Each structure stands twice: as structure tokens, then as C-alpha cells.
Amino acid sequence: MSVEQAPVQRADFDQVMVPNYAPAAFIPVRGAGSRVWDQAGRELIDFAGGIAVNVLGHAHPALVGALTEQANKLWHVSNVFTNEPALRLAHKLVDATFADRAFFCNSGAEANEAAFKLARRVAHDRFGPEKHEIIATVNSFHGRTLFTVSVGGQPKYSDGFGPKITGISHVPYNDLDALKAQISDKTCAVVIEPIQGESGVVPADVAYLQGARELCDKHNALLIFDEVQTGVGRTGSLFAYQHYGVTPDILSSAKSLGGGFPIGAMLTTEDLAKHLAVGTHGTTYGGNPLACAVASAVLDVVNTPEVLAGVKAKHQKFKARLEQIGEKYGLFTQVRGVGLLIGCVLSEAWKGKAKDVFNAAEKEGLMVLQAGPDVVRFAPSLVVEDADIDEGLDRFERAAAKLTQA
To answer: Model's pTM, two decimal places?
Structure first.
């Protein structure tokens, strides 16, 4: 028997929520595949994917099935015990990657927190407390905890919260010489997003990642890849490191891993993992059976030749049409990215106006994203149907036409 719910509307947000977000004027209430419906019954096409999270769209039968089956069995037992879904998921991740061990948590920030703590613990145990410095890149994004926001290279997110965690420096992305000049025997880790997501969908050069790997080996530092946004099929490989052919020591994953259910994972080798002995790190909800059952189902669907090849084919479809639209309306100068993480770089006349494009798209029934003020980002479902791609890009073109004619 369902209990009558009190009606709510967008105005309620401004009354009861902490004002750290400014959500859109409509409230999505239902989704199916790559379509979403709001409170008024209006249908939108979703090219935002919950910020690269809804890897199989909305209400995918395999995920709904996995969640409901597990919900009727066991929700939570804590890490005082283990559970079957966590072990199954760990096996799948280990079998599919360089890693020997997995640590489960609830978000990308927590996965990165674990990665950074592990890197410092390894260096501390092997070389002593002096070796604790972490090098990250300018404009990087690694999460919102105090540690991860300090490692992230965007002061607008880290300033104003008191003293920052020390021993962290930032060098320009894709600049191997800058990394070479900064790294030393005090460096415990170098942290890189294989594709910078939040700062504009900027892919790394292969030579840059290869050079970073060599520098880390030379200085006994660990190479950490933040694959929170690029992982679980987003690039057309299961993880972006496989696309580039450069293997990290530690990898963080979240977002797409749960297909919309909160879960994060840190993956690493047995040799490194042993430094997080019993009691050194923990989480109450991490590895809970619900999240792990869903993530396991996500991997079963995504880690198949058909879906991964489909991502590459859909990339070409998006790119060709977006370049056409960009040229026709003078809206953007470049379409970049890998797989289904795509950024359209706004032209000089439209610089700083990504929010205007977001709003215009929404008026035409399309959900897109920004990646900073100068880039419009697309991170749709990896199994978005071609018909939805065509219809969504038709809507995007209408939005571009109205914007540029205004």
C-alpha cells in the first residue's frame, strides 16, 4: 500500500536545501533508457547521464533486476563481515584490469581519498615520512573532501576552508617538462586524469602519460590515474588506461561503476595493497551488497565487445554531427574527447556562455552539461540508441539556431 506523498516543487529547494547547488527549474521524476520525464510530463533526451554516471541510461532492466533481487536478500552487514556481491564484483574488476586488489567505498572522492592515503602510507613505510609529496595538475578535479579538493588543481573549490593539506603541488596538464622539473625523491605520487573532465574534456597525450610512468618509476613514486569520469567503458575501453596503453599503480573509479547507484572503487596491486593493513582505513557503507550487486550487473553489460565497440561508433556519430552544427552556427571551434565523453569548445564569440547553451538545450527538451564556462559536455548512456542520438542532436541544432539568431 503506497502512502500519499506531499507535493513538492522546485521552489521547495530554496526553502529546505543548503544553497550549494543551483538546480534547473524543472524536476525529473522518471527515466527510461535515454529519455527523462519531468513533473509536468514533458519528455527530454538525456545526454548528461547524471554527469557521466548513468552508463546504461535510466531503469535498465539488468540493473533494476540486480537491485531488486538483492534488496530482497541483504542490504547491509558492515565490513565486520564480508558479502557475496562485494566478492563477485572484486573478482570481476581484478580479472578485467591490472589490479590484484579492490577497495570499495561510496564515491569518487572517497576512492581518491583512499588512493592518496595509500600512496602516502606506502612511501612512509618504505622510505620514511619525508617522502609524502603529491603532484597533481592545474585544473584537475579529484573530489570535494579536504584532501581531494586540496589535490585538485582548482583554487575556487579549495580556497576559504582554512589551512590546506600540505605537500601538494600542481603542474600544467599535458606538460611533461613541467612534471620532470617538479618531481623529486620526496614525491610519493603523481595523480593524473587520463582525460580532464570538469575542466573541459581535455584528453592526455599518450607521450605525456608514458613519460609520467617513466618519471614515477625513476623516483619511486606511484602513478595514480583518476578514472572516476573516464572509467567503465566511457572511452570505448573498460578503463582509459587500456585505451592509452599506460598502466598506473593505483586507479580510482566511481560514477559509471554503479550506473546510478553510489559506489566507488580503488584498484591496486597486491604489493601496494598490503600497506593498508587491518585498521588503517575504512568505511561504513563501502562494499555494501546493494551497490556491489548493481555494479556487478553494470560490468556484465558494459564489459562486452559489442557495447565497447558501440561506444566508439557512437563517438563518430556524435562528433561528425556536432562539428557540422558548430561550423554552421559558429558556436564552437573544436569537438574533443574520447568515446562518449565529448566536449565542444565554444568559439570566441560564445566564450563563457556554456550555461546559455545548457539553458537553450533544455528549452528544446535536451539535457547536456557544462565543463567549465567555455565547454559544452556530452556524457550520455553508453547504450544510447542511434534514434535518440539523432533526435537529441536535432534538438541541439534547434537550440544552436535559436541562440545564434537571437
So the answer is: 0.96
